[in-house]
Amino acid sequence: MSFDARRVRKRYRRTLKSVSNSVIYGVVTLLGFLVRRLSRTQTRRIAFFIGDFLHRVAGLRRELVYRNLALTFPEKSSGEIARIATAVYRNMTSTLLEVLRLPLIRNRDDAVALVDFDGDDAFWEWSRSGKSGAVMVSAHYGNWELMAMAFGVMMNPVTIIVKRLHNEQVDRKMNEYRTMRGNSVVYPQQSVREGLRLLQNGGTLAILGDQSDPDEVNFGEFLGRRAAMFYGPAFFALRARVPMFMPFCISNGDGRYTIHVRQIDTSGLTFNKEDIATLAARYTSEIEAQIRRRPEEWFWLHDRWKRG
Fold first, then answer.
1. In Å, what is the CA distance from 24 to each residue of 168, 178, 251?
2. Of the residues 50, 127, 172, 210, which has the maximum number of CB atoms within 10 A of its CB?
3. Per residue in 166-186, pLDDT tens?
């Protein structure tokens, strides 16, 4: 193939990707416009319909979801796995549509009408003091985007470490939603400097701790299988010497959510390699326990074990 032909094909692929990204952004924008004009009950019905379509008709990552569930829960029958999978797809689409409805949360009253907080004593003591920073480590579980906004509106603003989406237009829109009520975001490339500065100044840093380590440095077991482990939350908490809490935003089944917050014990740990690994194991164990309690609310469409 000549140099000119390769250049033409490369330009064609760039154009096709740009058009595809614009179409996706247009669909997301239109869908957001529509669901913000519907009731929450109507939105939930639409979410279930879309989830069932993606699951049973389009088969979006269906093989991956069923394999992940079967390997994690070998004791469950095929019927039980299928039931969980149906709920997984419905939860995924419900979460997406709730994200598109985030602009409707304009103030604390709007958040209170949708979300309850259930914290342990250590969390409420920290919240009342307002004097020290903290790391909030959670997972791709329940409605994590709603949780961040509700926390910022009802408690205090948080800075969220987010991965950059491939679609730049959608990425900008998502960050617009995330930051419209006082929260802020930082990408991983700037997170160490900005995160430590934030924590040392009494701020709150939010990180999802169920993702794999992109550098493939640390490995362990996650839900019974070898996987690359993410030590970021442990690094920040021990380096800045701040408490660590684990919140989960769980659906009540009636359109409302409860954010359960528990402290992760960091006592006796200092900033060194062994203690970072110990703390990472502690919050990973809590994430695993929550997933096993209610597996339908975790994001099983993600290939968590690809770096195992």
1. 11, 19, 27
2. 210
3. 999 999 999 999 999 999 999
